[in-house]
């Protein structure tokens, strides 16, 4: 992907406690990077949504309300934004934990858990997960070109 | 990010008006209001979202909660949601049971 998206060499870094109260700070960080890359409104919304959902998942299910930190690294360039989210919660691969919506299920029996991850993964142009040195590492990329197009309905 | 939530009754419709951002931190306020709205027993619950600039899956969870709380014959209507918000609702398949209206 690095051959497709040209990004700044040195990433901007944000480290926050893994709490719901830190979501606003993470969003502000992502919005600044999106603005620096000149992303359109739709692409900006999508990268923010994806990072927000993954960070929320780390707070609620990764650390399970316990103490922890989330590190967010971001690079922006003329071609888009790439965000890396790291945490030291137990190993969790969002691709495996994704729960696509089940529209046929009546509302009273519908589960929404896991849908956040589905939203995150369908909002970005590229996503990878790795577990390294006791850390979950998610890498999300949103390209500047054509990113305002509505992605296909999953 | 702040969220303001107001609740009123207009005829046979309970109106919830939201302004701000709906994420995991702010959604509990919306949740509480839904609980009150469900108790009103009107035939429609109208959720005005034109002032919501951002909604995460926590907001979807609230909408599912609303469906679960109201009686079967009650219509839930989401009005004025911006395109990315209504897309999020459609992605979850909730547009099959919640009425999405422009205004």
Account of the protein in words:
- The complex is a heterodimer of chains A (154) and B (103).
- Chain A is of the alpha+beta class and 154 residues long.
- Chain A has helices spanning 23-37, 41-62, 94-97, 115-123; strands spanning 12-17, 69-77, 80-87, 126-132, 135-143.
- In chain A, a hairpin with a 2-residue loop joins strand 2 and strand 3 (80-87).
- Chain A has a five-stranded antiparallel sheet, covered by helices on one side.
- The model of chain A has no long low-confidence stretch (mean pLDDT 86).
- Chain B has three helices and five strands.
- Chain B is globular and about 30 Å long.
- Classes of the chains: A alpha+beta (154), B alpha/beta (103).
Spatial sequence of strands, sheet with the most strands of chain A: 1-2-3-5-4
Global outline of chain B = globular
Distance between the termini of chain A: 23 Å
Round the Cα radius of gyration of chain B to an integer and report it.
12 Å
Total helices of chain B: the number is 3
Q: Could you give a short account of the major beta sheet of chain A?
A: 5 strands, antiparallel
The radius of gyration of chain A is 15 Å
Q: How would you classify the quaternary structure?
A: heterodimer
Please, how many helices of chain A?
Answer: 4
Question: How many strand elements of chain A?
Answer: 5
Biggest β-sheet strands, sense, barrel of chain B: 5 strands, mixed
Count the E strands of chain B: 5
Mean pLDDT of chain A: 86
Distance between the termini of chain B: 25 Å
Shape of chain A: globular
Write the element-wise H/E pattern of chain B from the N-terminal end onward: EEHEHEHE
**What share of residues are in beta strands of chain A?**
25-35%
Instruction: Give the overall average pLDDT of chain B.
Output: 93
Q: Which regions of chain B have little confidence, pLDDT < 50, spanning 5+ residues?
A: none
Q: Helix and strand succession of chain A?
A: EHHEEHHEE
Kindly report the spatial arrangement of strands forming the biggest sheet of chain B. Answer: 1-2-3-4-5
């Amino acid at each position: 992907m690095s051959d497709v998206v040209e990004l700044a060499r040195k990433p901007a870094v944000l480290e926050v406690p893994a709490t719901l109260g830190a979501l606003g700070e993470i969003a502000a960080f992502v919005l600044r990077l999106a603005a620096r890359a000149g992303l359109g409104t739709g692409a900006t919304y999508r990268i923010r949504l994806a990072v927000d959902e993954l960070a929320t998942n780390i707070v609620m299910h990764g650390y399970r309300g316990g103490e922890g930190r989330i590190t967010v690294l971001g690079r922006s360039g003329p071609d888009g934004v790439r965000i890396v989210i790291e945490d030291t919660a137990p190993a969790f691969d969002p691709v495996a934990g994704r729960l696509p919506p089940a529209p046929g299920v009546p509302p009273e029996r519908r589960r929404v858990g896991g849908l956040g991850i589905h939203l995150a993964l369908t909002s970005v142009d590229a996503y990878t997960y790795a577990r390294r040195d006791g850390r979950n590492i998610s890498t999300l990329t949103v390209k500047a070109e054509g990113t305002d197009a509505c992605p296909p309905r999953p | 990010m702040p969220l303001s939530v107001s609740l009123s009754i207009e005829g046979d419709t309970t109106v919830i008006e939201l302004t701000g951002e709906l994420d995991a931190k702010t959604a509990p306020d919306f949740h509480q209001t839904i609980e009150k709205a469900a108790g009103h027993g009107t035939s429609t619950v109208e959720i005005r979202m034109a002032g919501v600039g951002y909604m995460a899956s926590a907001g979807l969870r609230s909408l599912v909660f609303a469906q679960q709380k109201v009686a079967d014959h009650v219509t839930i209507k989401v009005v004025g949601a911006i395109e990315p918000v209504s897309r999020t609702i459609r992605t979850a398949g909730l547009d099959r049971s919640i009425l999405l209206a422009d205004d």
